[in-house]
Amino acid sequence: MAKISLKPNNDYCPQTLFLYGTYDESGNPDFGLFCWFSYIWDDEMGVMCCIGGSKLTRSNIERSKVFSANLVTEKMLPYADYFGCVSGDNPDKMKIALKIGKGEVLNVPILDEAPVIFELEAVEFIPRGDGEVILCKIRNVLQDESLSSDETVAQKLARIAPVRTTAKTYLGYDGRDMGAWGEPMKKLK
Ligand SMILES: Cc1cc2nc3c(=O)[nH]c(=O)nc-3n(C[C@H](O)[C@H](O)[C@H](O)COP(=O)(O)O)c2cc1C
To answer: What is the pLDDT of residues 11-41, one digit of tens each?
Structure first.
């Protein structure tokens, strides 16, 4: 197949989406949407993620060293998109009706609706230009009880329907177009 050469981009390489939950200096929860998230091996499975530029999520993690990563599903997409498009510097960002709980092991805010939640402790910060790679220990994984059922993995994934993203577009679990970044949040009342 003929190829074309392009500047750095990751179009057509779908990524899983997570909402990172942190507490600010006053103990108020904040959620931001992130897709530069993957896994590392370090005697056990760990997580690596990259945060670019200055963000409330980033300063909260740098201060507290802990956060939650909540898997985003199709049902969660309108508010997940909102959390990705509205900065934590906006004092009204978290004025949204959502069931926010607490981690089991770490002092992190979690989203009750997420079927899979990582409780993460940041153990290494690697600054790169105005961004930062953060290496984390997984201190706990919270999973909906229903994911322990006898269904196949494919059936469970189809049921919880995690969203993926590439090329500034959201894709449903079956690959259908769920809108450009900034569109799903328009469904919020
Ligand atoms: C689909 C999507 C994915 C995103 N992924 C990342 C990411 O991996 N890293 C990053 O630094 N910012 C990412 N962002 C931007 C943050 O979500 C955005 O800056 C958000 O306002 C941060 O919230 P905060 O200011 O409350 O921390 C993403 C935004 C969207 C819409």
So the answer is: 999 999 999 999 999 999 999 999 999 999 9
For ligand 1, atom 7, the nearest C-alpha belongs to 34
Find tokens 């898997």 and name the residue: 71
pLDDT in tens, 175-187: 999 999 999 999 9
Contacts of 56 (CB under 8 A, 6+ apart): 22, 24, 30, 32, 87, 88, 89
29-34 vs 18-23, strand pairing mode:
antiparallel
Tokens coding 59: 């300063």
Who contacts 96 (Cβ-Cβ below 8 Å, separation ≥6)?
A: 79, 82, 188
- Determine the distance separating the centroid of ligand 1 and the alpha carbon of 49, expressed in angstroms: 12
Q: Which residue's CA lies nearest to atom 5 of ligand 1?
A: 34
Within 6 A (CB) of ligand 1 lie 30, 32-36, 50-52, 55-57, 84-88, 165, 181
User: Confidence band (pLDDT; 50, 70, 90) for 189?
Assistant: confident
Question: Which residue has the CA at smallest separation from atom 24 of ligand 1?
Answer: 88
